[in-house]
Amino acid sequence: MKLIKTLIALLGIAITFASILVGAVYYGLTEPLNIQSDQRFEVKKGASSIAIGNQLADRGWIMHPFLTRVAARLDQSIVPKVGIYKLTPDMNLMDVMVLLDAGETISYSITLLEGKTYKQYLATMANAGNIEMTLQGLASDEIAQKIGLDVASPEGMLFANTYRYHDGDTDLDIFMQANRLLQATLEREWKNKANGLPYRTPYEALIMASIIEKETGTPEERPLVARVFVSRLERGMRLQTDPTVIYGMGDEYNGNITRQDLRTHTPYNTYRIDGLPPTPIANVGYEAIHAALHPGETDALYFVAKGDGSHVFSNTLREHNRAVKSYQLKRKEDYRSSPSQ
């Protein structure tokens, strides 16, 4: 009888101790981290749950590092993923382990604007400061090869959009994202294009889209500009568009186009060549691609910038020359050929 009482007493002590232990573990897993503001936390390749616990404890964010192993064993599916994470003051240790298991690392965004060249995109990414730059200094054909393009230049092959990226991502990673989105958009728009367009390939439509983008940033004008250029191609007229001349000048362009520039033959001088230039002259978004493949309705064959970001469209050369005299030869101080950003 005495033995039974002793066993019962010991069992009670064990249950009490177990309850205390379970309570302590629960408290350790659910109490908020000891941080006062958002913190970055990196999980490196091969890090175990106990190694993660030691990292957190060394920083004073938790008291007991072994609890990370307990958390992992409570849920056998928890496997921390490599990356950099944001920990917030309202999180507890269990929240942290779930976050690491989900692989929800810190992400950033970068916007690649319409009408910019791939070199300008590289400069934008370099300025971000946390993208690994691997393409700067490479020739255009080398970059095209790394992206996996079947053309010799990445110009125009990158969709203008906002992209998410993570620490450790490279400029090539982002370029490949942008190219995949461009290819998908162009393929979809090509399948639904208007009838009778003078493009032999989707790439030619993309070249046209880039010219449209550089000629106007006004949404309602894109289809009209597209129709003017399509009509010119159909009639065998040269496109005679300044943005292609500027692109062909490269670093020699200083902000002004002279008559000599218009007479100088380059593959991009549409005052001297017939048809489209050999490549796009900028990268574009959906609107320019859609306009190139769905031109608006106008009989105009000419247009000229008014200086407020919009254009005057003319059906005849006489009307066009009159508009040029009104808006180009008498420019105001606040003249601009495209809308302000």
Automatic annotation (TrEMBL):
Pfam families: YceG
GO biological process, one term: cell wall organization
Family designation: Belongs to the transglycosylase MltG family.
One GO cellular component term noted in the UniProt record for this chain: plasma membrane
Keywords of the record: Cell inner membrane, Cell membrane, Cell wall biogenesis/degradation, Lyase, Membrane, Transmembrane, Transmembrane helix
Main EC class the enzyme belongs to: lyase
Subcellular localization(s) per the UniProt record: Cell inner membrane
InterPro entries (UniProt xref): MLTG-like (IPR003770)
The keyword Cell membrane belongs to this UniProt entry's keyword annotation: yes
Protein function: Functions as a peptidoglycan terminase that cleaves nascent peptidoglycan strands endolytically to terminate their elongation.
Gene expressing this chain: mltG
Membrane topology of the entry: Single-pass membrane protein
GO MF terms, alphabetically ordered: lytic endotransglycosylase activity
The name this protein goes by in its record: Endolytic murein transglycosylase
Marked site positions, Important for catalytic activity: 215
Chain segments annotated as transmembrane: 7-29
EC number: 4.2.2.29
NCBIfam families in alphabetical order: endolytic transglycosylase MltG
Reaction catalyzed: a peptidoglycan chain = a peptidoglycan chain with N-acetyl-1,6-anhydromuramyl-[peptide] at the reducing end + a peptidoglycan chain with N-acetylglucosamine at the non-reducing end
